UniProtKB/TrEMBL annotation:
The keyword Protein transport does not apply. The keyword Transport applies. This is DMT family transporter. It is found in: Cell membrane. It comes from Lapidilactobacillus achengensis.
Amino acid sequence: MSWLYLLLAGLFEICWATTMKLSHGFSRLGFSLLTLGGMIASFFFLAQAIKRLPMSLAYPIWTGIGAIGSILIGWLLFKDQISPLTWLFIGFLLIGIVGIKMTSSS
């Protein structure tokens, strides 16, 4: 269940980063409230995951899910330009996240 909590925490991190962009500097109330709700949910699920998973494992995976997910949303939804070299480093980040999970004892 801890891994599900960690996945949910990462997905909510992607949500709040996206809605923060859509809030236009917290000037749009609906998106601002969604941002705050996403932050609360993300931290809640991270806290649940960290009850059983080591912090040294959960935190980098949480941030990695959020980072890669936010990059993909920026690219797909906001048409952010990503260079081929940047894609290479995104791949390294993904490899790092998978490697952390595979080499953990949890």
